[in-house]
Amino acid sequence: MGNAKSSAISKEILEDLKLNTKFTENELCQWYENFQKQCPTGRISPEEFETIYARFFPDSEAKTYAQHVFRSFDTNEDGTLDFKEYIIALHMTSSGKTTRKLEWAFSLFDVDKNGYITKTEVEVICQAIFNLIPKEDLPKLPADENTPEKRANKLWGFFEKSDNDRLAEGEFIKGVTENENAMRLIHYEPIKH
Ligand SMILES: [Ca+2]
Ligand SMILES: [Ca+2]
């Protein structure tokens, strides 16, 4: 679109985002302006997203995790993040309501987007989370969490499923809501020094 720079945020998107996030109209318009400056095409590519993400994790290998996060926010599956998807991402990773956050966490773990989480998918995401942990923090991890496999086993164990079972969204949300260790293990949390 030739007039991308001067175009304002569409009313439809604005209303939708006001409804689905706690951001104000002013904040959303400000972000839209910044978004258009930094991203004149109006779409964030996976590579751009990885670059943005890497800045938050200068001491780690954030690329695989960034790819999974990207996938989970690309809700229309067109391979890019538009403004709306980007704002929802921002909202989820900062101030989203708990249930919405857990719905997002479910979509992060549901790698093939079939509506269920398998143990293999838990292993894939645990590996990506593991890559975010700075090397010097690895020796500080509990003995039953100090490899991606152990972390995945421990997390999967909280859901009381056999290795070949699969986990629906409601079971996932219930499981992590009822168990603070499960809640902790689905995210990367920096070790407090
Ligand atoms: Ca998209
Ligand atoms: Ca799946």
Bound molecules: calcium ion
Extended strand count: 2
Helix content: 55-70%
Across the major sheet, the strand order is 1-2
β-strand percent reads under 5%
Number of helices: 10
**Spatial extent as radius of gyration:** 18 Å
- In CATH, the architecture of the largest domain is Orthogonal Bundle
Quote the average pLDDT. Answer: 90
Which fold name corresponds to the CATH topology of the largest domain? Recoverin, domain 1
Number of self-contained structural domains: 2
CATH class of the largest domain: Mainly Alpha
Give the CATH superfamily of the largest domain.
Answer: EF-hand
- In whole angstroms, how far apart are the ends? 49 Å
Query: Could you say which structural class the secondary elements and strand pairing correspond to?
Result: mainly alpha
Question: Unreliable segments (pLDDT under 50, ≥5 consecutive)?
Answer: 1-6
Brief summary:
With 193 residues, the protein is mainly α. It is built from 10 helices and 2 strands. It has a two-stranded antiparallel sheet with strand order 1-2.
